[in-house]
Amino acid sequence: MTKAIRIMENGGYEVMQYVEVEVGDPGPGEVRVRHHAVGLNYIDVYFRMGLYTQPLPAGIGMEASGFVEAVGTGVTHVKPGDRVAYASNTTGAYAEVRVMSASALVRLPDAISFEQAAAMMLKGMTAQYLLHSTYHVKLGDTILIHAAAGGVGLILCQWAKSLGARVIGTVGSEEKAALAHSYGCDYPIVYTREHFVDRVKYITDGEGVSVVYDSIGKETFIDSLDCLRRLGLMVSFGNASCPIDQVKVADLISRGSLFFTRPTLFNYMATRLDLENMARDLFDVVIAGRVKIHVNQRYVLSDVAQAHRDIEERKTTGSTILIP
What residue stretches are annotated with the Enoyl reductase (ER) domain (predicted)? Predict the structure, then answer.
C-alpha cells in the first residue's frame, strides 16, 4: 500500500483526502513511477472545485518527477531506474507512487533536479507554446503578462526577455513586483495601486502591446483587450478569477480588429514528437541558464489543503511543489 490524495466529491480544500491506495503492476504501454516531487498548479484547483470535470472518485495533480520502478509491455523509451518527469492530462500526480501511461513521460537530464522538474514541466511547456506557437515572440515585441510573479509568469518573463522582448507584467504587491523584475520583467505594475491599462499605454506611448498573456480570466478580460495594439492578440490561458463567460465580436472589432484565443497545453503536445520537442526546448533554456526554476514553496503531500489555500489566496510566488 502507498499514500495518495483522492477526491470523492468536488468542493473546498476539505474534499482532498490523504488515503492509502494499492498500486499494482503496469499494463501494456504503462509505467509505475515513484515520485520524488509533485508540482502544484492552479489547474488542480479547477479539478478539485469541479470547474474542470472528471469521473469521481479521482486523483488530482498533473505533473511530477521521480524514478521508473517498472514498465509494461511495449514500453521502450524508458526503463526501470530512469529519472523521468511529466505533465499529463490524466490526473493523479498527488501520490507517492502511481501507474500511468508511458506516453506522458520524458527522461530527465542529469543537470535538472527532481524538484526543478516537478516545478516546471506543466508551467514550462505552457510557457514554451505561448511564446513559440500561440504567438511567436521576437526581438522588439512588447508583451503583457498577468500574474507575472506566479509559476508560469516568472518563466514567461525570463524566456520572453531572452528572446528580446520588452516585458510588462502585473502583480499584486511591491514584493511581487521586485521578484518579477529580478526575473526579467522590465515594467512590473502593482495592479492594486495603479490601473494597469493606463500604465501600459504610458509605457508604450499609447500604442499598446503585441500580445497579452492572461491567466486571470473574466476579471481582467476587457482591460486586457484595452492594452492591445491594433491587430494584437489576446491569449486567455487560465481562469484564476472566473471563466470568461462570453466574448463579444464587437469588442474585438472596435479595439482594432483584435485576435483572441483560448489555448490549452495538451492540444499543443498532442503527439509524442510535439512533447519531445517542447520538453527539449524547455530543458535547453533551463540548462543554459536562460530560465531559472526556483521552488519558492514546499509542502508535504499530507498538507495539500494548506497548499491549495495559499495558492488560491495568492500568497505564493513562482513554483510550488509537494513532497510525497
Answer: 11-322
Q: Domain containing 318 — which CATH number? A: 3.90.180.10
The 3 state secondary structure assigned to the chain is CEEEEEECCCCCHHHEEEEEECCCCCCCCEEEEEEEEEEECHHHHHHHHCCCCCCCCECCCCEEEEEEEEECCCCCCCCCCCEEEEECCCCCCCECEEEEEHHHEEECCCCCCHHHHHHHHHHHHHHHHHHHHHCCCCCCCEEEECCCCEHHHHHHHHHHHHCCCEEEEEECCHHHHHHHHHCCCCEEEECCCCCHHHHHHHHCCCCCEEEEEECCEHHHHHHHHHCEEEEEEEEECCCCCECCCCCCHHHHHHCCCCEEECCCHHHHCCCHHHHHHHHHHHHHHHHCCCCCCCEEEEEEHHHHHHHHHHHHCCCCCEEEEEEC
d(CA 39, CA 49): 18
Are 257 and 288 in the same domain? no
Whether 128 is in a domain gets the answer no
Last residue of a domain, one of 262, 284, 311: 262
pTM of the model: 0.93
204 plus 158 within the same structural domain = yes
Same domain, 41 and 96: yes
Domain extent, residue 82, equals 2-121+266-323
